[in-house]
Write a structure and sequence with these properties.
Layout lengths: L8 H9 L3 H22 L10 H15 L2 E3 L3 H25 L15 E3 L12 H18 L2 H12 L4 H8 L2 H24 L3 H5 L4
Parallel strand pairs: 1-2
Helix pairs in contact: 1-2, 2-3, 2-4, 3-4, 5-8, 6-8, 7-8
Length: 212
């Protein structure tokens, strides 16, 4: 078992952000079995894939790190908690969309930017960003927080704010009607704001927890 002194997760994240593909491969290799086992224990049998859970988790981890918002965490435990939650949500999305014969719109949210979110508040720079950089950072926080929301809340916000559907269109797609889509969206927004606040405060355990 590795000691805390051997935890080089942050170094590998920074190397990957600088373009080192071997660091990405190492992050996946170091954490794949733990995250796959965690997800397998927490998902209901009906949501488990027909194939190997670990195969899906590997693909999903690569997608999170390649296409999702860039982030830094101080240790392996926080990295695992964050990525496991996002991958678990992806698995739930896939299950639901496959049974509706709908495409997964997750990758249409937008490409990752150069913004790197530091989830350790004590280590953040005090430099005031430009207006453009601040907008990009705000968008990155929202994207990361969105990936941590429960699937129904995530879907409602994506349809409305990223796909720019009307509530009527969203309600038709969700099968809950216009008023139902509006209510779901209105309930999801405060949850998203709460996730952003928790992430900014470095409260990873609370941020990754499922909503009641």
């Amino acid at each position: 078992m590795r000691s805390p002194q051997d935890d080089d997760t942050l170094d590998k994240l920074r190397s990957w952000h600088a373009g080192d593909r071997t660091a990405l491969d190492a992050l996946v290799s170091d954490n794949l079995t733990w995250i796959a086992d965690h997800i397998h224990r927490n998902l209901r049998p009906a949501l488990r894939l027909t194939g190997q859970t670990e195969d899906f988790v590997q693909q999903a981890m690569l997608a999170v790190l390649e296409y999702g918002p860039k982030f830094e965490v101080s240790d392996r435990a926080r990295f695992r908690a964050l990525v496991a939650r996002i991958v678990e949500n992806d698995l739930r999305d896939q299950h639901r969309f496959l049974h509706r014969e709908c495409r997964d719109v997750r990758r249409n949210v937008g490409a990752a930017t150069d913004t790197v979110l530091n989830l350790d508040p004590a280590a953040r720079s005090v430099t005031t960003p430009s207006a453009a950089a601040e907008r990009e950072e705000r968008r990155a926080w929202l994207r990361l927080a969105l990936d941590l929301l429960d699937p129904e809340d995530r879907e409602a916000i994506r349809m409305r704010d990223w796909e720019e559907l009307t509530f009527r269109e969203a309600g038709e797609r969700l099968g809950i009607g216009e008023d139902g889509a509006r209510k779901r969206y209105d309930r999801a927004l405060p949850k998203l704001a709460k996730k952003v606040a928790l992430l900014r405060d470095g409260k990873i355990d609370s941020a990754v927890a499922a909503e009641d």
